[in-house]
Protein backbone atom coordinates (compact mmCIF):
# COMPACT_ATOMS: atom_id res chain seq x y z
CA UNK A 1 0.00 0.00 0.00
CA UNK A 2 2.95 2.34 0.60
CA UNK A 3 2.27 5.97 1.26
CA UNK A 4 -0.73 6.50 -0.97
CA UNK A 5 -3.57 8.39 0.66
CA UNK A 6 -5.71 5.29 0.99
CA UNK A 7 -9.10 4.98 2.64
CA UNK A 8 -9.05 4.26 6.32
CA UNK A 9 -5.77 6.01 7.08
CA UNK A 10 -5.91 8.29 10.09
CA UNK A 11 -5.28 11.89 9.21
CA UNK A 12 -4.23 14.85 11.29
CA UNK A 13 -5.84 18.12 10.16
CA UNK A 14 -4.14 21.34 11.26
CA UNK A 15 -5.84 24.62 10.45
CA UNK A 16 -4.93 28.27 10.59
CA UNK A 17 -7.66 30.30 12.32
CA UNK A 18 -8.00 33.85 10.97
CA UNK A 19 -9.55 33.95 7.48
CA UNK A 20 -9.39 30.13 7.44
CA UNK A 21 -11.30 28.51 10.32
CA UNK A 22 -13.06 31.84 11.02
CA UNK A 23 -14.00 34.55 8.52
CA UNK A 24 -12.30 37.48 10.25
CA UNK A 25 -8.86 38.62 11.43
CA UNK A 26 -8.88 38.82 15.23
CA UNK A 27 -6.26 41.56 15.43
CA UNK A 28 -8.22 43.75 12.99
CA UNK A 29 -11.42 43.40 15.04
CA UNK A 30 -9.54 44.31 18.23
CA UNK A 31 -7.82 47.26 16.57
CA UNK A 32 -11.16 48.64 15.37
CA UNK A 33 -12.15 48.93 19.03
CA UNK A 34 -8.86 50.67 19.82
CA UNK A 35 -9.42 53.19 17.00
CA UNK A 36 -6.47 51.82 15.00
CA UNK A 37 -8.49 49.55 12.70
CA UNK A 38 -7.48 50.94 9.31
CA UNK A 39 -3.78 51.20 10.15
CA UNK A 40 -3.70 47.66 11.57
CA UNK A 41 -5.75 46.10 8.75
CA UNK A 42 -3.24 47.50 6.24
CA UNK A 43 -0.35 45.90 8.17
CA UNK A 44 -2.25 42.57 8.42
CA UNK A 45 -2.83 42.58 4.66
CA UNK A 46 0.88 43.11 3.98
CA UNK A 47 1.94 40.48 6.52
CA UNK A 48 -0.41 37.86 5.04
CA UNK A 49 0.88 38.63 1.54
CA UNK A 50 4.41 37.91 2.78
CA UNK A 51 5.67 41.49 2.53
CA UNK A 52 6.42 41.88 6.24
CA UNK A 53 7.95 39.71 8.95
CA UNK A 54 5.02 38.19 10.82
CA UNK A 55 6.38 38.40 14.37
CA UNK A 56 7.58 41.99 14.02
CA UNK A 57 4.35 43.10 12.39
CA UNK A 58 2.26 41.35 15.07
CA UNK A 59 4.22 43.12 17.81
CA UNK A 60 3.58 46.43 16.06
CA UNK A 61 -0.15 45.71 15.68
CA UNK A 62 -0.63 44.50 19.28
CA UNK A 63 1.09 47.66 20.56
CA UNK A 64 -1.88 49.65 19.24
CA UNK A 65 -4.21 47.73 21.60
CA UNK A 66 -2.63 49.13 24.78
CA UNK A 67 -5.29 50.39 27.16
CA UNK A 68 -8.20 48.28 25.87
CA UNK A 69 -10.20 46.67 28.68
CA UNK A 70 -9.97 42.86 28.66
CA UNK A 71 -13.76 42.48 28.29
CA UNK A 72 -13.29 43.62 24.69
CA UNK A 73 -11.89 40.13 24.01
CA UNK A 74 -15.26 38.53 24.80
CA UNK A 75 -17.08 41.14 22.68
CA UNK A 76 -14.86 40.40 19.69
CA UNK A 77 -15.27 36.66 20.19
CA UNK A 78 -19.05 37.08 20.06
CA UNK A 79 -18.73 38.79 16.65
CA UNK A 80 -16.77 35.94 15.08
CA UNK A 81 -18.29 33.38 12.72
CA UNK A 82 -16.84 30.09 11.54
CA UNK A 83 -16.00 29.90 7.85
CA UNK A 84 -18.45 28.05 5.60
CA UNK A 85 -17.87 24.30 5.85
CA UNK A 86 -15.74 24.57 9.02
CA UNK A 87 -18.27 22.90 11.32
CA UNK A 88 -18.93 20.17 8.71
CA UNK A 89 -15.21 19.44 8.34
CA UNK A 90 -14.79 19.16 12.12
CA UNK A 91 -17.81 16.86 12.48
CA UNK A 92 -16.61 14.57 9.66
CA UNK A 93 -13.06 14.38 11.09
CA UNK A 94 -14.35 13.64 14.59
CA UNK A 95 -16.61 10.88 13.23
CA UNK A 96 -13.50 9.26 11.72
CA UNK A 97 -11.43 9.75 14.88
CA UNK A 98 -9.05 12.11 13.06
CA UNK A 99 -7.31 14.58 15.38
CA UNK A 100 -7.77 18.27 14.64
CA UNK A 101 -5.65 21.22 15.73
CA UNK A 102 -5.81 24.98 15.38
CA UNK A 103 -2.61 27.01 15.09
CA UNK A 104 -3.05 30.74 15.14
CA UNK A 105 -1.16 33.99 14.96
CA UNK A 106 -4.25 35.24 16.85
CA UNK A 107 -4.98 34.85 20.53
CA UNK A 108 -5.84 32.08 22.98
CA UNK A 109 -8.28 34.41 24.73
CA UNK A 110 -10.42 34.46 21.58
CA UNK A 111 -9.65 31.10 19.94
CA UNK A 112 -9.94 28.76 22.96
CA UNK A 113 -13.69 29.22 23.53
CA UNK A 114 -14.36 28.87 19.77
CA UNK A 115 -12.37 25.63 19.73
CA UNK A 116 -14.18 24.38 22.85
CA UNK A 117 -17.53 24.96 21.16
CA UNK A 118 -16.64 22.51 18.38
CA UNK A 119 -14.65 20.05 20.50
CA UNK A 120 -11.14 20.88 19.27
CA UNK A 121 -8.70 20.44 22.16
CA UNK A 122 -5.38 21.24 20.48
CA UNK A 123 -4.88 24.96 20.11
CA UNK A 124 -1.66 26.95 19.80
CA UNK A 125 -1.96 30.73 19.63
CA UNK A 126 -0.54 33.90 21.15
CA UNK A 127 -1.50 35.40 24.51
CA UNK A 128 -2.23 39.05 25.14
CA UNK A 129 -0.55 40.46 28.24
CA UNK A 130 -2.97 42.27 30.56
CA UNK A 131 -2.53 44.18 33.80
CA UNK A 132 -5.34 45.25 36.12
CA UNK A 133 -7.97 44.35 33.53
CA UNK A 134 -6.35 46.29 30.68
CA UNK A 135 -4.27 45.12 27.71
CA UNK A 136 -0.66 46.28 27.92
CA UNK A 137 -0.06 46.21 24.17
CA UNK A 138 2.35 43.30 24.46
CA UNK A 139 2.25 39.63 23.59
CA UNK A 140 3.02 37.30 26.53
CA UNK A 141 5.55 34.61 25.64
CA UNK A 142 6.97 33.50 22.29
CA UNK A 143 4.99 34.43 19.17
CA UNK A 144 3.31 31.72 17.10
CA UNK A 145 4.80 32.60 13.72
CA UNK A 146 5.40 30.85 10.43
CA UNK A 147 8.12 28.52 11.78
CA UNK A 148 6.15 27.70 14.94
CA UNK A 149 3.10 26.59 12.95
CA UNK A 150 5.17 23.96 11.11
CA UNK A 151 6.81 22.89 14.39
CA UNK A 152 3.40 22.31 15.98
CA UNK A 153 2.15 20.34 12.97
CA UNK A 154 5.13 17.98 13.36
CA UNK A 155 4.68 17.75 17.14
CA UNK A 156 0.97 16.92 16.91
CA UNK A 157 1.66 14.29 14.23
CA UNK A 158 4.32 12.68 16.43
CA UNK A 159 1.98 12.71 19.45
CA UNK A 160 -0.73 10.96 17.45
CA UNK A 161 1.64 8.54 15.72
CA UNK A 162 0.56 9.87 12.33
CA UNK A 163 3.06 9.92 9.46
CA UNK A 164 3.64 13.41 8.01
CA UNK A 165 2.41 12.09 4.65
CA UNK A 166 -1.01 11.67 6.30
CA UNK A 167 -1.16 15.21 7.67
CA UNK A 168 -3.28 17.97 6.15
CA UNK A 169 -2.60 21.67 6.72
CA UNK A 170 -5.00 24.43 5.70
CA UNK A 171 -4.22 28.15 5.64
CA UNK A 172 -4.47 31.42 3.72
CA UNK A 173 -1.51 33.63 4.58
CA UNK A 174 2.26 33.72 4.16
CA UNK A 175 2.71 32.67 7.80
CA UNK A 176 1.08 29.34 6.85
CA UNK A 177 3.61 28.49 4.12
CA UNK A 178 6.01 26.39 6.25
CA UNK A 179 3.13 24.40 7.70
CA UNK A 180 1.62 23.79 4.24
CA UNK A 181 5.02 22.64 2.98
CA UNK A 182 5.57 20.28 5.93
CA UNK A 183 2.17 18.59 5.60
CA UNK A 184 1.48 15.65 3.30
CA UNK A 185 -1.32 17.76 1.81
CA UNK A 186 -1.11 21.56 1.99
CA UNK A 187 -4.36 23.34 1.15
CA UNK A 188 -4.73 27.05 0.43
CA UNK A 189 -8.13 28.39 1.49
CA UNK A 190 -9.27 31.59 -0.28
CA UNK A 191 -5.60 32.41 0.02
CA UNK A 192 -3.14 35.14 -0.92
CA UNK A 193 -1.60 34.47 -4.38
CA UNK A 194 1.81 33.61 -2.88
CA UNK A 195 0.12 30.89 -0.81
CA UNK A 196 -2.17 29.50 -3.51
CA UNK A 197 0.86 29.17 -5.79
CA UNK A 198 2.79 27.01 -3.30
CA UNK A 199 0.00 24.83 -1.91
CA UNK A 200 -0.80 21.32 -3.18
CA UNK A 201 -4.46 22.23 -3.58
CA UNK A 202 -6.45 25.44 -3.40
CA UNK A 203 -10.05 26.17 -2.48
CA UNK A 204 -11.04 29.32 -4.34
CA UNK A 205 -14.79 29.19 -3.91
CA UNK A 206 -16.90 27.15 -1.54
CA UNK A 207 -16.22 26.00 1.98
CA UNK A 208 -13.72 24.08 4.08
CA UNK A 209 -15.75 20.89 3.73
CA UNK A 210 -14.32 20.60 0.18
CA UNK A 211 -11.20 19.24 1.87
CA UNK A 212 -13.10 16.01 2.51
CA UNK A 213 -13.38 15.32 -1.21
CA UNK A 214 -9.57 15.06 -1.40
CA UNK A 215 -9.28 12.61 1.49
Q: Could you characterize the architecture of this molecule?
A:
A seven-stranded mixed beta sheet has the order 4-3-2-1-5-6-7, with helices on both faces. By secondary structure, it is an alpha/beta fold. Helix 2 (26-34) packs antiparallel against helix 3 and helix 2 (26-34) packs across helix 5. It has a single domain, classed as Rossmann fold. Helices cover 43% and strands 20% of the residues. Its EC number is 3.1.3.3. GO terms for molecular function: L-phosphoserine phosphatase activity; magnesium ion binding. The active site is at 16 (nucleophile), 18 (proton donor). It holds the Pfam family HAD. Pathway: Amino-acid biosynthesis; L-serine biosynthesis; L-serine from 3-phospho-D-glycerate: step 3/3.
Short description:
With 215 residues, the protein is α/β, with parallel strands linked by helices. It has a single domain (12-214), classed as HAD superfamily/HAD-like (Rossmann fold, 3-Layer(aba) Sandwich).
Shape: globular
Question: Considering the protein shown, what is the CATH homologous superfamily?
Answer: HAD superfamily/HAD-like
* Sheet with the most strands: spatial strand order: 4-3-2-1-5-6-7
- Beta-strand portion reads 15-25%
Order of helices and strands: EHHHHHHEHEEHEHEHE
Spatial extent as radius of gyration: 17 Å
Q: What composes the largest sheet?
A: 7 strands, mixed
Integer tally of domains: 1
CATH architecture descriptor: 3-Layer(aba) Sandwich
CA(first)-CA(last) distance: 16 Å
Give the overall average pLDDT: 95
Point out poorly predicted stretches. Answer: 1-6
By DSSP (H or I, 4+ residues per run), the number of helices equals 10
Structural class: alpha/beta
- By CATH, the topology is Rossmann fold
The CATH class assignment is Alpha Beta
Amino acid sequence: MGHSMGEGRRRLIVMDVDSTFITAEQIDLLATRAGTGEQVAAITERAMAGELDFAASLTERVATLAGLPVQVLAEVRAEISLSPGAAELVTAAQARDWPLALVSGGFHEIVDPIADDVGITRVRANRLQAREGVLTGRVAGPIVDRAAKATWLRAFAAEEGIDLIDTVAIGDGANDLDMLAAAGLGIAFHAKPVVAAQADRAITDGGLDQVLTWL
